[in-house]
Sequence to fold (620 residues):
Amino acid sequence: MTETNARKVLDFEKPVDELQRRIERLKRDGTSSAGEIARLKEKLSELENKVYRDLSAWDRVQLARHPMRPTALDYIGCICDEFEELHGDRYFADDPALIGGLAKISGIPFMVIGQEKGRSTKEKIARNFGMVKPDGYRKSLRLMKLAEKFGLPILSLVDTQGAHPGIEAEERGQPRAIADNLKEVFGIATPIIVVVIGEGGSGGALAIAVGDSILMLEHAIYSVITPEGCAAILWKTREKAPDAAAALRLTSGDCLELGVIDGIIEEVHGAAHRDLEGNAARIRDAVLAEHEKLGKVPPDGLLKLREEKFYAMGQFEEG
Amino acid sequence: MSWLNRAKRGIKTWRKKDIPDGLWEKCPSCGEILYRKELDRQLSVCKKCDFHFRINAPAYLDILADASTFSEMDTALVSGDPLEFKDSKKYKDRVKAAIKKTGRNSAIMTGTAEIGGRPVLLAIMDFSFMGGSMGSVVGEKIVRAAKKAVEERRPLVIVTASGGARMQESILSLMQMSKTSAAIASVSRAGLPYIAILTNPTTGGVAASFAFQGDIIIAEPKAMIGFAGPRVIKETTGEELPDGFQRSEFLLDHGMIDIVASRQKLKTTLVYILDSLMSGASVRVEEDNQENDRKTISLIW
Fold:
């Protein structure tokens, strides 16, 4: 995380933040005994468990969009021993909202792609708040095909509110770019591990979220539309976003129950933004475990399983 | 103020909802009053300005398929309510109302048919069923249609009309984008043509999945086609939208679709394309391979 941002705290996090500040202050002063600090730390851990477990869907949305929540590049910095970013779609542009490159994770070469929201205001604007244009989706497909060609597994980090809605995006074929990724991925014969790290927003997220192992961070969300967008259409007012968030069943627990993801990575210290390195380590361990599992499946077997996995999604009645 | 009130009782304002069963219809584009029966003969296209009225799935079936060749599949598939979704109305009630209104169980009809004497697998979306939105049923029906197309070596033709994914099925409806894409990929691998016919409107999750995966993409004139809705684009970017933005002709200009065909020419265009693609060498090779497979199998047996 960049140092320029002051600590930003959501209302429901305040008790945790206050206690943590107190502990930091006591440590700095050096007047409290080690036992006292240990006792407070234990209390902090209990408080974290309480505050970050019992949350409404709308609170979860706030956590997924937390201004301090680690982004794809934060995790890449922690998870990867090395990372060489690769740029451009070879047609038109290099979309900074979609990053990708050659990485090594615990010595294993990976192709890593991800949506990057940026952190400072300047960076957010430069990265278009993680809203990808057609050029970004074409870059991700190029990199995935490159990975397949050389037998590299793919790690995809998903974090976007949705694909960029704009004139130029439509002119350059936003629907075609997403549709292409969705179709071509069923022919990319190399293991694909997906982690939804923040917001999994609509088709813009899905375009890089089809794979063999699909995981979500505990406080990530995944939905067909933003709660605000849904509320505006179905409730006729954006103010009903908290109701829409609950109705959409967008939490990691919901997604697991509905059969659209394979697992949840629990966040340490309550939430990812409270401990980047701790949470990055959990992601790395999960990715390596999935990689080992998928490594045992031959490439055409992977394709068959991937197809069957998505064919099984959905619920209907047949009377 | 009396000039604001009706002088005579019994004068009715000409409203769209008054018209469908009537003798006359007003063209919303040019205002021409059209005789209903003549409009039907013109396939619901305004003779004056070429405006294409929205028509439902059975109407497209009549236009595209050879008479009495359509055999519908999977009519019994209906939406469940996995999320128990409720906004101002329950999702279950919305589905029930749509079934009652359209007389059909879902926003898509699928089945085998012949077009110009050629066997195809035909799927037609229906905007009158909850805005043609794609939920689990639409997704499943497309997968089954694609499987049958591959099994019987029929080209796949899909007529799209949809506002996008069905919000009431949330993440499950989003997944139908990848589910249908897997199905289209399997048709592609089998070397069979898939022709997409985009009608007004084709947007959101349907545009960003099977609508834009066609080997050939045809659109009706002036159909609204795009990913994000114009209002969302305006609100997000503050940009003024150019004239004709996200209309078929705009997409043709930007290289995103192959052909804009008026409704009257839709069938002849489709027949020509199917004939051309199906007479190509690769399809014949596939057929030969199948023939060989069958021979091999019969030898083994």
Q: What stands out?
A: The two ends of chain B are 91 Å apart (CA to CA).
